[in-house]
Write a structure and sequence with these properties.
The chain is an alpha+beta fold. 33% of the residues lie in helices and 18% in strands. Helix 6 packs parallel to helix 7 and helix 10 packs across helix 13.
Length: 470
């Protein structure tokens, strides 16, 4: 770090680099959310204890005449390495948390960290905070041009996380900008998204032809990627055995993931969807058909992904990936009574679904099954097992629930007759529900007054040899 003239040993450098990466991911998510609100950035983002302290630091920057050297795009890094900057930064100890931590600064506000990877500036945390306070206070993040550019960055970066023809039978429709802002690059944003979503013949055709099966791992290899404890492995094996060899239509396992991990995953999920701050108008998601009102994103399980969301969901997704290997030790029977192996595959993507009962009006999912009942029937998508892991519980107040809805309703009737008997499974952080995708008709009850977040993986079975895929 040239400005502070500090020499670190290798371990400190490693820890510092890790902290810088985590801080960068958090800042990236913050800017993504900011692009979808009309509130001034100076009122939305607080870099210190409060806005008053931010304002005081900005005035300090002004009194040192340093703001004149800053602009939406910093073309010359030398302007950040002056003696005046050095003297100011040495005064930030105690005023800015972790003031001397190494931090990555984007030279331009109009491009993402990834797009500027080769030109990122390494600066002390105090200098980063002062520059960002200046960017907020001078209104650079409030312009239509910046919002449009940022939304386009989101489209380019996150289209790969959206539902794709390879992994879903959902037909996504790009969300239209509903604000009154004349965002200059919204049209470019929509065009980019539509282009990404039209690269294939369509989700349903692609699913029937088994395109997603080529992007999976065998059950045992998936389990090797994510080792679990003997206790969890036994729970999963017992659960799947009850589905195939017992009389269970679904199995519920509690506490398969710790509350701490669930909380981190929940916070990361809300941040991605743009719901971390209630002042944020909306986040970018794929609008669903009328039969469901949740908001979804597909997150890589096996591929390395530096995105904060993927990192937070890594362990929960790993638990779900082990469901397939648990089924390998069970014995199933075909219609003739002969033993039949389970050639199960684990897809590379897990689905994160948000039912936002705070910002939306009672979102729900109507009665459905996750695959057609007969192999090769209409809607075939090769899903064998459904595994749903809840990342949060309804909030409680004074010993009772403050919210309602969100339960998974499991029907006894194979056709899902809503007048038939049913069982409601309440969401609970760390609770895992497993059922056979073809057999269970189910729905999600309207979510009222809270945000329900769950991670799902569909274990696939390659049965293309049994059906016509044309």
């Amino acid at each position: 770090m040239e400005i502070m003239d500090v020499e670190n040993d290798a371990e400190i450098e490693r820890l510092g680099s890790t902290a810088a990466g985590e801080f960068m991911a958090a800042h990236e998510s913050l800017l993504d959310a900011l692009a979808w609100t009309t509130r001034p950035a100076a009122e939305t983002i607080v870099w210190t204890l409060n806005t008053a302290t931010d304002e005081l630091l900005y005035r300090t920057l002004l009194s040192n005449n340093l703001q004149h050297f800053l602009a939406p795009t910093i073309d010359d890094a030398l302007i950040l390495k002056t003696e005046r900057w050095r003297n100011l930064l040495l005064c930030m100890n105690g005023r800015i948390e972790d003031y001397d931590f190494i931090t990555l600064l984007c030279p331009s506000i109009y491009e993402s960290y990834e797009e500027q990877r080769a030109n990122l500036l390494v600066v002390p945390r105090a200098q980063f905070v002062l520059v960002e306070i200046c960017r907020c206070r001078q209104g650079w993040y409030d312009s239509d041009d910046w919002r449009g550019s940022r939304r386009l960055c989101v489209a380019r970066r996150q289209c790969r996380l959206l539902p794709t023809p390879l992994y879903s039978v959902i037909e996504p429709v790009p969300k239209q900008d509903q604000t009154n802002d004349a965002v200059s690059k919204t049209e470019a944003f929509d065009q980019e998204l539509k282009r990404q979503l039209q690269l294939s013949e369509g989700n349903r055709v692609a699913a029937r032809r088994g395109y997603q099966l080529e992007h999976c791992l065998p059950a045992q290899e998936a389990a090797q990627r994510f080792p679990v404890s003997a206790e969890v492995a036994h729970k999963l094996e017992s659960a799947v055995d009850q589905l195939y060899n017992g009389d269970k239509r679904y199995v519920v396992l509690d506490d398969v993931v710790s509350q701490n991990i669930c909380e981190k995953a929940y916070k990361a999920g809300l941040s991605w969807f743009g719901r971390k701050d209630t002042s944020i108008d909306t986040g970018f998601i794929s609008a669903q058909n009328e039969h469901r009102q949740d908001q979804i994103v597909f997150v890589p399980i096996f591929d390395f992904d530096p995105h904060a969301l993927a990192k937070a969901l890594k362990e929960p997704a790993g638990i779900l990936a082990n469901v397939a290997s648990s089924a390998l030790s069970t014995t199933t029977f075909d219609e003739s009574g002969d033993n039949m192996a389970l050639p199960l595959l684990v897809p590379n993507l897990a689905q994160l679904a948000l039912y936002d009962g705070v910002s939306s009006q009672a979102p729900e999912y109507v009665v459905h099954s996750d695959n057609c009942r007969e192999i090769g029937g209409d809607g075939e998508n090769y899903r064998e097992l459904t595994a749903i892991l809840y990342l949060n519980s309804p909030p409680l107040q004074n010993g009772g629930p403050t919210s309602a809805g969100g339960s998974l309703r499991c029907f006894d009737d194979p056709d899902g007759d809503e007048n038939s008997s049913y069982v409601d499974i309440e969401p609970s952080a760390g609770r895992l529900v497993i059922f056979q995708s073809r057999d269970l008709m189910h729905s999600v009850l309207p979510v009222i007054g809270w945000r329900r977040l769950a991670l799902s993986v569909w274990i696939l079975k390659d049965s293309r040899s049994l059906i016509s895929v044309e």
